[in-house]
Structures are given as C-alpha cells and as structure tokens.
Write a structure and sequence with these properties.
239 residues; alpha/beta; Glycerol-3-phosphate (1)-acyltransferase; 9 helices; 14% strand; globular; disordered N terminus
Amino acid sequence: MDSWHYQPTGDFDKAPIERLKNFPRHPDLLVYTVRSVANLAMRAFLRTWNRFAVTGRENLPRTGSFIVVANHSSHLDAPAILAALPMRQIHRAFPAAASDYFFTSLSKIAFSAVIINAMPFDRKENPRQSIDLCRQLLEAPGHILILFPEGTRSFDGAIGAFKPGVGFLTAGTRFQVVPCYLEGASKAWPKGKWFPRPRKLRLRIGAPATFHDKSATKEDAIAIAAALRDAVLALERSI
C-alpha cells in the first residue's frame, strides 16, 4: 500500500481573509460545513418568510457544467437561485459577484465567499480577465456559474439590457445557458433596505440553450445577450 503524506492547501500560509478573497478557492471542510448549514437555513427562511416557489426545475441540466442567467433586482437573487438547486450542488455553484462591492470588507467577503460561494468579478478594471476565469470554471466538469448580465440591480424591477460579456463567454461553445426569471425580489428586498420584507418570491426556470454556432465577435456577443434577455422576458410574461 502506498504511504499517505499530508499536503496542506496551496494558500495555507495566507490569512483567512486573503484565502477567501482568492479564486479559485481551495476546499475547506469548515467552510463547506458552514455553507451547508447556512443554505439549509436560507431555504427554510425563503419558504416561510417569502413563500418561495420554483417552477421548471426539470430544465436544469443533470450533467456537465452550465450557466444560469437571471434578472437582477435584489440581493435576494443569488440566494433564491441557490435555493432552487439540489443541495449536493451548492459547493459547485458560483454566483458572479462584483468585486468592487462584495469583496471590500470583512463582513461582505465572509458572506460572499463562505455562504454564497461567490466568484469575484471585476466589472470595472478587467472584465475580460473575469470572463476568462468564468470560462475556465465552466471547462471543469459539474460547475454552475450564476450570472446577472444586467451588471447591476434594477431599481424598479424592470429588466435592463444584458451586457455582451455573457455573449463573449458562450459564443462558439457547448456551454448550456439556462434562463431564469425571479419575480418579487425587488419588492421583497429593494435597494436601501437592511432586511427582506415578507413578499412572495417565484422563480421560473426556462429551457437551456447553446450558442455553438455563434462567433466571438462583438456583433454576435450583443445578439446572444439580447436573445438571453428575450428568454428571461418570456419567462416573466409566462408567470
């Protein structure tokens, strides 16, 4: 039998906060445990406080990596989408979160990295590098990338234009993209409020699409983003 040697993670010598800011992160049993417990509590909270309901779960791919794209109107958006996924997938699901907002203080970093498992996305200084990181994440099997292509929260719940980054990411690839529409989040937790209100949340999950027949040109990237926005709008109309 081969002898076993303990090998610490590559970032073991770094401070805990620096380890959480890094991406990809090394596996950590304590983080996994806290995230699992927090997600169970979050699911129970959403079901009772916000009467959270999901339709279309059968549209989630059962194998391979895929992307979820959704409208963005509240800080409840990512937790709600995570709550719609099977528990076994929460450690492999990564909401892309603005690094200039969610990774700027100890409390935000702890919540984003530990509870939400967010991937820091540099939307201002180097978005192309962040898109490349998203692509690397999806090339590994079984990963789920959660994107909000509007790039920021809507003030009134109306769905804004989708930025072309999602088009550059998916053009010419076999990545499956699952459109989702979350209703009620802007009323349940609007900008400026410190705690969610007891408003009903409904998540509609649409059929996945691929864009392997597109090229990574600006024109096609814009067209892909527009097509995905149309898919989310269609889900909004179907509720």
